[in-house]
Amino acid sequence: MLLDLTQVTMLRHFDPVWLVVAVGAITFILGFAGCVGALRENICLLKFFSGVIGFIFFLELTAAILAVTFQGQVRGWINEFFLANIKAYRDDIDLQNLIDSLQKLNHCCGVQEPEDWDLNVYFSCNGTHQSREKCGVPFSCCIGDPADTVVNTQCGYDVRNKTKSKWEQDIYTKGCIPALEDWLPGNIYTVAIVFIVISLLQMVGIYLARTLIGDIEKVKFSYY
Fold it and tell me: Measuring CA to CA, which residue among 60, 224, 54, 59 is closest to residue 46?
């Protein structure tokens, strides 16, 4: 699945598969160093463990500060990333399911607006293509009826042929980035708590590693 997603999510020659591999490798190495270092009372491994966690914490803090400082650039990068994936919506079933889940969960359509789907060759109102989905949107943009037991995958057909004032009767008219921006202020405390909990866990790990190092050095010093 990841290899398929690579073909459509690659942005500026960045391969997301390598990110997953790197995170997995770092997690394994850290776990190994911390576990073996504590069991064998190996100071070098414990110092490596605490040092890497401290470095990761510093990177997280730096990334958070930069994201707040350069909100415009971050928003532009995210916008570009999502637009690239909208273009490739029909190229991979896994990407398709990911975008559909995002739109249904956030009650949104497109990146900034439903017209972003003009970038996809199947949904575009431009050109001479004969796609049945022309001037439409994916079914995940549709405002569902709670009484429906079967998903109507054709509910978005031709919806953008109507006047814009009538779109809101059938589909979500808010883009996913504005929807996310509206969600964040109302859940800022939740985000902050998650960040604080992760930070505390990292600091506790560093503290325990440094404490164990100190105890080991005291024992070694007592023998001399």
Answer: 54
